[in-house]
Design a protein that fits this description.
Helix content: 25-40%
Keywords: Methyltransferase, Transferase
Pfam families: Methyltransf_25 (PF13649)
CATH superfamily of one domain: Vaccinia Virus protein VP39
Order of helices and strands: HHHEHEHEEHEHEEEEHEE
Radius of gyration: 18 Å
Structural class: alpha/beta
Strand order of the largest sheet: 3-2-1-4-5-11-10
Organism: Acidiluteibacter ferrifornacis
CATH class of one domain: Alpha Beta
Protein name: Methyltransferase domain-containing protein
Bound molecules: S-adenosylmethionine
Largest sheet: 7 strands, mixed
InterPro entries: Methyltransf_25, SAM-dependent_MTases_sf
Shape: globular
Length: 244
């Protein structure tokens, strides 16, 4: 069973940001630029970055001439992101299971595996419905998720990472339909333990959620270079969907 609402505490903690601090920003920027080019997105469009974290994608997209709003549940991340707000860049603390602003955005983004955290199917459906409801008709949703089939083949995994004198002991395995990551470490004489869960959601399951919300998949990419998705070899499952 998933620890209900585990994501509230972990993503809001200093240790989460420490562990993932070496994300590839260049790759993230190039991915955004490829998407904008491929779909010829016009400057001035309204974009919502759902589960934006500290706003790394939102900030970059706003520099390209779009009007961007980032939302996230983590108060810590949103407070940090808000330091860079301007007239085309806004951040708000908000739960993705609820609609933020109905029928308003041209594009909704859900990037870097920011889905699959919930305990129930109802919550998954609710979150996708809220993503759809944020969009204008004919608006587009981009979901950037893991290719779970490929990841599961590599499990179980054990690794150790030392960052700023903290040694994180990490175990990743499949349990009860979730890719489960146990993260244990000591800091200042205290032992910490967090668990991340990402649900084993495959393309056909996304298709069902999306159809229920009036969204149609129009492209399926398998990596940040926008190569086609192949369930055996692709690293990512990137869905481009249109609201009908
Ligand atoms: C893997 S991080 C990715 C963050 C960001 N998209 C990025 O690429 O840096 C997942 C994010 O989802 C957020 N999150 C988790 N549950 C959420 C919810 N119910 N509503 C909104 N955001 C949520 C977390 O706070 C965290 O910032």
């Amino acid at each position: 069973m998933v620890d209900k609402e585990w994501f509230k505490e972990w993503f809001d903690s200093h240790y989460y940001h420490l562990l993932y601090q070496s994300r590839d920003e260049k790759e993230a920027h190039q991915f955004i630029q490829r998407l904008i080019g491929r779909f010829a997105l016009k400057k001035g469009l309204k974009i919502i970055d759902i589960a934006c974290g500290k706003g790394r994608h939102s900030k970059f997209i706003s520099t390209l001439g779009f009007d961007v709003t980032g939302i996230d549940l983590s108060a810590e991340s949103i407070t940090y992101a808000q330091k860079d707000e301007n007239k085309n860049l806004h951040f708000a603390r908000h739960d993705m299971r609820e609609v933020f602003r109905p029928n308003y955005f041209d594009v909704a983004l859900n990037l870097f595996t920011s889905f699959g955290y919930f305990e129930s199917e109802e919550e998954n459906k609710k979150a996708i419905q809220a993503m759809a409801d944020n969009l204008v008709r004919q608006g587009h949703l981009v979901i950037d998720f893991l290719n779970v089939k490929k990841v599961i083949k590599t499990l179980p995994v054990k690794e150790q990472k030392t960052i700023e004198n903290i040694t994180f002991n990490i175990e990743k395995f499949l349990a009860n339909g979730y890719i489960t990551k146990e993260i244990a470490f000591d800091d200042e004489g205290r032992a910490f333990h967090f668990t991340e869960y990402v649900k084993n959601i495959q393309l056909h399951q996304f298709q069902e959620y999306l159809n229920l919300s009036g969204l149609e998949i129009i492209h399926t990419f398998g990596d940040y270079h926008l190569n086609s998705f192949d369930e055996t070899t692709s690293d990512r499952l990137i869905l481009i969907c249109k609201k009908n």
